[in-house]
Amino acid sequence: MSSALSLANIRSSLIRQEDTIIFGFIERAQFSHNVPVYTPDAIPVPGYDRCGRRYSLLEYVLRATEQLHGSVRRYTSPDEHAFFPDDLPPMVLPPISYAPVLDACADDININSKILQVYVNDILPGLTNPGDDGNYGSSATLDVPCLQALSKRIHYGKFVAEAKFLAKTAEYTELIRAGDADGIMELLTDREVERRVVERVRRKAATFGQDITENGAPAAPQNGEGPRLKVCPDLVARVYEDIVMPLTKEVEVIYLLRRLDGGGKPVGALAPEAAAAAPAR
Predict the structure, then answer these.
(1) Residue 53 lies in a domain
(2) What's the domain count of the chain?
(3) What is the pTM of this model?
(4) d(CA 100, CA 107)
(5) Rounded CA separation 238/244 (Å)
(6) 246 in a domain, yes or no?
(7) What's the CA gap between 74 and 97, in Å, rounded?
(8) pLDDT, tens digit (0-9, with 9 covering 90-100), for 42-99
(9) Maximum Cα interatomic distance, the chain, rounded to a whole number of Å
(10) Signal peptide position in this chain (predicted)?
(11) Contact 73, 95 (CB under 8 A)
């Protein structure tokens, strides 16, 4: 796993994760918003949280999915985070021993509750058409991979933060010891890189979302307004700009503020090509 701290490898993984998120959005966008899927008690699922509140259908399906995935050790991987971490079942496969890459503080950083809230309240209304088409099960099962992909992408900020810490240890150490969250945020932010990410995601969404005819050409435009698209590229770009990257940087700051709790010693070796501390977002 030490190779995961190569910034080239991190960038490659983040770019692949863009594809996963976009395709997940395309799949979910084929159904209407279907508000009852996200409303507790709207659909009487046989599941309740620890306070006795009935789960929404999405929560029920998400938790049940994690029960299966957790049993085959998905959430033992340092780049996977459960939305219901306290409810995971015993594993049927023996755990894998991963080489230490991240500081131990990484184990306690999980912002999936915020990701779930933002997905339901901010992403879905723009991603889907308003209304109710009755496809509740399909909607919920397609929401799950979207949430898993967003969670993985955002929590990958831990790897980004560790790579940046190892590349600029003195600068980050000074800010961490001062508890300067704003200074850490400023140091790790590269606005030009972020701009390029947003534009790349916009272009991917425009490309992946086209209908292609039997001849291999894009389907004819509707009303002369351009190609038919399964998902709005501007919507995907806004999700990245306003949600994905800010939450990723939030994870980075949380991680870095705790990074010296264990003494600040390097955990994994930064690959040679990362010595120049080229930013990854």
Answers:
(1) yes
(2) 1
(3) 0.90
(4) 12
(5) 9
(6) yes
(7) 13
(8) 999 999 999 999 999 999 999 999 999 999 999 999 999 999 999 999 999 998 988 8
(9) 63
(10) none
(11) yes
Tokens of 175: 């800010």
Whether 249 and 165 have beta carbons less than 8 Å apart is answered as: no
Is 180 contained in some domain?
yes
Question: How far apart are alpha carbons 265 and 254 in whole angstroms?
Answer: 17
Residues 6+ apart with CB under 8 A from 19: 204, 208
DSSP letter at 130 equals S
Which domain range does residue 240 map to?
A: 3-211+229-258
Residue with the two structure tokens 């399909």: 138
Beta carbons of 93 and 73 less than 8 angstroms apart:
yes
CATH number of the domain encompassing residue 191: 1.10.590.10
Report the distance separating Cα 62 and Cα 69, nearest Å. Answer: 10
Q: Is residue 219 part of a domain?
A: no
Q: How many other C-beta atoms are found inside a 10 Å radius of the C-beta of residue 270?
A: 20
